[in-house]
## 1
Amino acid sequence: MTPKFVVLGPPGAGKTTVGLLLAERLGVAFRDTDDDIVAAAGKPISDIFTDDGEPAFRAMEEEAVAEGLKGHDGVLALGGGAVLSATTRARLADHTVVFLNVGTAEGVRRTGLSTARPLLAGVNPRATFKSLLDARLPLYREVATIEVLTDDLTPEQVVDEVLRPTGPAQGT
Ligand SMILES: Nc1ncnc2c1ncn2[C@@H]1O[C@H](COP(=O)(O)OP(=O)(O)OP(=O)(O)O)[C@@H](O)[C@H]1O
Ligand SMILES: O=C(O)C1=C[C@@H](O)[C@@H](O)[C@H](O)C1
Ligand SMILES: [Mg+2]
């Protein structure tokens, strides 16, 4: 059993929104490792960060991704920071991996109203988002087989790009 598509990218890129639509379009199940972690821990991600710390969260995430890659054959969305793990990046080899990219301005706009993302909860979300994106961009690209810049696309259009027979249009 292996996912048809693994979806990743920074917070607000649309992993959950687009992942669900993509699964609907393909008639397959959708799974999100953030949800698996919340279910396993019995508390929200913000509480895991506060009570147990980020390293504990990353260990749970590594396990959740490994389980998802083994046990799910639909669309699997990963948490925004899952690629920080070299073990996870190695496990993503040979999978079809969609990197949903989003620029800082649009990413901050999309995540701005939520308090559910502990890493973006600081005083300057824009600077935090940009440094997170800068640090992770090479890691997303290391594992991605498809990249879509989502800033000016609706979620439906992002799905269209992912499913284009020749792959997403570049630079248009
Ligand atoms: N292409 C898009 N155009 C406009 N809004 C979008 C698009 N994709 C997602 N959104 C909106 O941005 C917000 C964040 O989307 P979503 O929760 O799917 O992101 P995510 O990548 O799963 O984030 P996280 O890493 O926090 O789980 C939601 O309000 C969603 O409706
Ligand atoms: O970008 C990140 O590091 C995170 C993104 C979310 O999906 C969650 O996995 C968590 O809030 C951490
Ligand atoms: Mg999500």
Note: DSSP finds eight helices and five strands in the chain.
## 2
Amino acid sequence: MSETILKLQDVAVFQKENLILNDITLLVKKGEFVYVIGKTGSGKSSFMKTLYADLPLKQGTGSIVDFNLKSLPEKDIPFLRRKLGIVFQDFKLLPDRNVNNNLRFVLKATGWTDTSKMDKKIEEVLDKVGMKTKGFKFPHELSGGEQQRIAIARALLNDPEIILADEPTGNLDPQTSVEVMKVLQDINQTGRTIIMSTHDYALILKYPHKTLKCDGGKIFEVIQKAV
Ligand SMILES: Nc1ncnc2c1ncn2[C@@H]1O[C@H](COP(=O)(O)OP(=O)(O)OP(=O)(O)O)[C@@H](O)[C@H]1O
């Protein structure tokens, strides 16, 4: 039986006092791939931020990977984040250190201490995104697509059950977007749940998945037309 990994009931999303989205009731099962689409300013990022507790859940109830978003104390947010892999449009790699040290930084910050275990893990995640030979490169020595692969590798370090990707291909050309998307598809095929916000309809048509649309302060599922 498929497990629920995200459950929202009558949720409202706020930016400060401003209501951005209302009446969100949603179930996502383990292993699903879900797109979140919508015009600029429709609330996609605000929705994603609510899922990783960057915005507090003030109204309605919600749980993600067994964390209750409604009553989540500030001190528990780092524990939730370890169960999530978060990928952003602008990669957010640390510019002053190479790829290996970007990844090592995250491992140390999340409690890893054994050097050989860290090295093994770094090699494993770089291999997953096809970047095994790039560990000694600095971010500025990599293309946008390569930087995004490293950001995805970083998101995989703590074996998250769910990846939240907020416009991961937003800064990439169409061909590179497809390459990054293939990486996300492979990760999804290994059983991980992916929620990805995007503007890229070409990707959605090429890789059809359940699609939620933010519009007029609501989120609803849309049925994709076959091309
Ligand atoms: N930090 C903030 N403080 C106050 N309001 C904000 C903040 N961030 C976003 N908003 C507002 O919330 C609304 C939704 O913004 P959000 O970034 O979630 O939209 P989006 O769909 O992700 O847009 P885009 O596609 O441009 O990234 C917008 O009206 C925006 O102005």
Note: The first strand starts at residue 4 and ends at 15.
